[in-house]
Design a protein that fits this description.
The chain is α/β, with parallel strands linked by helices and about 240 residues long. The chain has a domain of about 60 residues. The chain is built from eight helices and ten strands. The strands form two sheets. A six-stranded mixed sheet has the order 6-7-8-3-9-10, with helices on both faces. The protein has a four-stranded antiparallel sheet with strand order 2-1-4-5, covered by helices on one side. Helix 3 crosses helix 4, helix 3 runs parallel beside helix 5 and helix 4 packs across helix 5. The longest helix has 16 residues. The radius of gyration is 18 Å and the shape is globular.
C-alpha cells in the first residue's frame, strides 16, 4: 500500500432505513481507510451491509451518519452535478449482470461513459479501443453482446469501467453470473489490473473470490467483523513486481 492521504476514508459511517415503525441499521459505525492501489474485498452474507457499502462508496447513496472522504474531498459537500461527475470520472462500476446495451457493439458500449464527458467521437473511439485491448478483446470491437460469451461480456463491462481512467474499479459480485473457470479468468484480469496500479474494490459473498484480494473486510450486521491482509498474496504480488 502507498503512504500518504488514503484514497478513501470512512469515519463513523452509518446507514439507517425506516421499515414501518422500526429503524434498520444497514451499516452501523464503519471506520475504514483504503489506500491507492489497494485490492480489497468486502465479504459477507446477505444482509451484512455489503450492498449498502457499495452504494455509499460509489456515491449512489449517502450515509445517515458519518463522513466519506474520496481523494481528500468530503462527499457530503458535493453538489448533485459534482456527484454525477465523480461517478463518471472517479469510479468505474462493474456489475454482476454486465449492464450492456444490447443493440450497441462492444466498442459502442465501452465508449458510453465518455459521451457524458463531452469527449469528441474520435477520441472516444481511441480510448475505448485501448481499453478493449487491455482486457484482451481487441478482435471483438464490432460484436454485439449476444455474440459474446458471458466472460467476454464481463470483459467489455470492465473495459467500459476502465475507459474513464477511474481512481477506483468498484465491482459488485462481478463473477456471480459466470461458471467457475470463467470466474477464475475474470479474477486473473483483476489481479493484472491491480498489479498495473489500479485500485480494485470487490463486493462478494464468495471466499474464493475474496482470496484473490490483498485485503478482505468481512461485514456482519452492518459492522466490520474482521479486516485481514492476505500476507501470502501480498508477498506474491510484491515478487511479481520485483519488490522482494
Amino acid at each position: 500500500m502507498s503512504t500518504g492521504e488514503p484514497l478513501i476514508r470512512l469515519q463513523g459511517i452509518a446507514k439507517h432505513y425506516q421499515m414501518g415503525g422500526e429503524t434498520i441499521a444497514a451499516l452501523n459505525g464503519i471506520d475504514l481507510e483504503i489506500a491507492r492501489n489497494d485490492y480489497i474485498a468486502f465479504i459477507g452474507s446477505s444482509g451484512s451491509g455489503k450492498s449498502t457499502m457499495m452504494n455509499i462508496l460509489g456515491c449512489l447513496d449517502a450515509p445517515t451518519l458519518g463522513k466519506y472522504f474520496l481523494n481528500g474531498r468530503d462527499v457530503a459537500g458535493m453538489s448533485e452535478s459534482d456527484l454525477a461527475r465523480t461517478r463518471n470520472e472517479e469510479i468505474g462500476f462493474i456489475f454482476q449482470s454486465f449492464n450492456l446495451l444490447t443493440r450497441a457493439t462492444a466498442l459502442q458500449n465501452v465508449m458510453q461513459p465518455l459521451i457524458y464527458r463531452g469527449i469528441r467521437p474520435a477520441e472516444r473511439a481511441r480510448r475505448a479501443t485501448l481499453a478493449m485491448a487491455r482486457v484482451g478483446l481487441e478482435n471483438r470491437l464490432d460484436h454485439l453482446p449476444n455474440q459474446l460469451s458471458g466472460g467476454q461480456r464481463q470483459r467489455v463491462a470492465i473495459a467500459r469501467a476502465l475507459c474513464s481512467e477511474p481512481s477506483i474499479l468498484l465491482a459488485d459480485e462481478p463473477t456471480g453470473n459466470l461458471d467457475s473457470a470463467t470466474a477464475a479468468d475474470i479474477m486473473s484480469l483483476f489481479d493484472t489490473l491491480h498489479a498495473e496500479g489500479q485500485t480494485v474494490i470487490i463486493v462478494t459473498h464468495e471466499p474464493d473470490i475474496a482470496a484473490h484480494c490483498r485485503r478482505a473486510v468481512r461485514l456482519a450486521d452492518g459492522k466490520v467483523q474482521s479486516d485481514v491482509v492476505n500476507t501470502v498474496q501480498t508477498a506474491f504480488r510484491s515478487r511479481e513486481r520485483g519488490h522482494v
